[in-house]
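Retry 2 of 3 after timeout on previous attempt. Resubmitting structure tokens to design endpoint.
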């Protein structure tokens, strides 16, 4: 923004614990509880610090959907992750071993 760039899109994400006990005992909206139940039924598996290849598959689909180009190439992300391993990582949700969200 200091250089005059302006955001044209901002995606907001949220993460909640999918453990049944936590979802049912905490103050979640009914929509959040329903989505957590739906994820459990679909056997969503969440992998922390997964591989960039699965992440990139999802990113390509997202950028294609929005007719946009990524800020960084896959190679640049790998380089950044190598420079900042504790700060850049790829958390991915899978259904039947297929990446569905990151």
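Retry 2 succeeded. Sequence:
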């Amino acid at each position: 923004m200091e250089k005059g760039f302006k955001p044209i899109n901002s995606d907001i994400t949220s993460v909640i614990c999918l453990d049944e006990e936590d979802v049912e005992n905490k103050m979640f909206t009914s929509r959040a509880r329903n989505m957590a139940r739906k994820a459990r039924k679909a056997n969503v598996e969440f992998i922390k610090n997964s591989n960039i290849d699965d992440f990139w598959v999802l990113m390509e689909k997202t950028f294609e959907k929005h007719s946009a180009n990524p800020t960084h190439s896959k190679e640049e992300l790998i380089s950044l992750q190598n420079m900042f391993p504790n700060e850049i990582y790829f958390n991915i949700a899978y259904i039947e071993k297929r990446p569905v969200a990151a």
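Attempt log closed. Residues 24 and 33 are 7 Å apart (CA to CA).
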